[in-house]
Amino acid sequence: MASEIILHWASGSVPSMSVLIGLKEKGVDYTSKEVSFGDLKSEEILKLNPRGQVPILSHGELLITESVAMCLYLEKAFEDKSLIPSDVTQQTVVVQRMLQAQNIGVGPTSICCVREEEGSENTDDIDHQKLAKEIDSWEEYLTGGPFITGGDFTMADVVFFPVLAYLVWEGLYLGGKYPKLEKYYNMVRERQSVQTSWPAFWSQTSPKGIFNNL
Fold it and tell me: Is 184's pLDDT higher than 90?
């Protein structure tokens, strides 16, 4: 792959964080183009993605605007380090978890969307009961091992962990009710790929605390 990878991303964007972690875990060199949320409607971004969202990954003539597709592309295009098992059954579980992680970012919960502007989310519409049920499922997934699909860190973790980190930043307390997720969070938080992609303003809990009651 002679062409360079270029990634447009925003700090605090959950999908952006997933791709940043994936690039680091895979050991892929890339050109970083960080943008602010206020720049998402700029001519440069809209030309690449008319939806005005990041991340945006380009590699030669290939342009990808969906984060899960980016992670799958990185896995296949750069095979030195595999983050998806070769066994078809295990592979299916990893990809399924990658897609399931998106369930926490669509519909009534809408926590993983890229904010077009500060405070644009309508938190009154968040269905806490549905979100709590979804989190229960992820707690159960960790019964089979320290990571989301068992004993190894995979692309499932690359996609899911930023979702969990966002929830924690927004006030979700893992202690007590979610012991496996708490242990998982603390363990993955220490990975170099996570530390280098961690938004600076996530060092303190969000002042909104919209998930404090879960």
Answer: yes
Contact 111, 104 (CB under 8 A): yes
Query: What percent of the chain is helix, strand and coil (3-state, nearest 5)?
Result: 50, 10, 40
Q: Are 172 and 214 in contact (CB under 8 A)?
A: yes
Pairwise CA distance, residues 164 & 170, whole Å:
10
pTM of the model: 0.88
Measured in degrees and rounded to the nearest 5, phi and psi for residue 138 equal -70, -35
Identity of residue 69: A
Render pLDDT for 32-91 as a digit per residue (tens, 0 to 9): 999 999 999 999 999 999 999 999 999 999 999 999 999 999 999 998 899 999 999 999
Report the C-alpha dihedral over residues 12, 16, 19, 20, rounded to 10 degrees.
-50
Answer for the pair 90, 151: CB distance below 8 angstroms, yes or no. no
Strands 5-9 and 56-59: antiparallel
**Residue 12: C-alpha distances to residues 35, 49, 117, 174, 203 (Å):** 11, 19, 12, 20, 11
Among the listed residues 102, 86, 85, the one whose alpha carbon sits nearest the alpha carbon of residue 150: 85
Q: DSSP assignment of 40-87, as one string?
A: TTSHHHHHH-TT--S-EEEETTEEE--HHHHHHHHHHH--SS-SS-SS
